[in-house]
Amino acid sequence: MWQDILNIHQDCEEYFLNFETMPGHADSLIACAGVSTLRTAYQIGKTGIGELFDKKEVNRVHVHYLLVTHSGAGKVTLESGEYLITPGSILILPVGTPFLYELADEHWSMSWLLLHDCAQFNYIHDLSPSVFQSDKAQPLYKTMTLLRDLNHVSGQHQTEIMTGLIEVLIYQIEQSTNKNVNLSPQQCKFTSLIQSVKKQLQYPWTVAILAEKMHLSEPQFYRLCKRETDMSPLKLITKYRLEYACNLLRYTNYNLEQIAFSIGYADSISFAHRFKLFYGISPGKWRSLEKD
Fold it and tell me: Which of the chain's ends, N or C, has fewer CB atoms near its CB within 10 Å?
């Protein structure tokens, strides 16, 4: 019954978001994504054995499908039956799910994401293929359209804005797929704290400050962080700081002193030392290689 189907009428409009060209490392989490307005005819069918994004590829890429409907309607056929996809709904199709989704109205405006089968989205394996109404649908759709629109403009703060939007998008994906449904209150609080750290990389974070915010001792917080992220607290913060520094090096003309200050280092010397220890190359050399 199940087969690969790709039937897209010329009246359909689809905008693809290429996370490989965007700041950050979202491409390690999102294989492919886009915003679509579909008309006349649209059908996508999959057997559940994986995707071939490039004809040269031999191995299939395993992905979770996430669709968010803004207006109009579609329908999806699963092994359990046929379901209408209405505005404000989210469709989740975990890895290995055979399906057929198609246009079911005069138009269907939606955003879609193909999520890598990676550790961060491992919890999706425990979910059943389903369509459900969610108050998180429209905000996620809006973030996708903002990323689409921002991709067409340039400006002094574009990198910072796009990086922030991508962070928001990843958070919305996790919330929309109910990542926290099986988390303990402590795990939820830890996740929220890490989000705050990412938004304030310039702040002089210490294990003592983080532990206090969690109402834990420093050794207790260290063990919690190690268990949840497989990294020590300071190594985790360093990772976030230097990943953001890479975005600034690649997409802005900020000098090393400005970058150092924006991610919480006292001066460019301290920043350059830490960068070289982490990546094995100086930030100036890294920037030159990226821009060549």
Answer: C
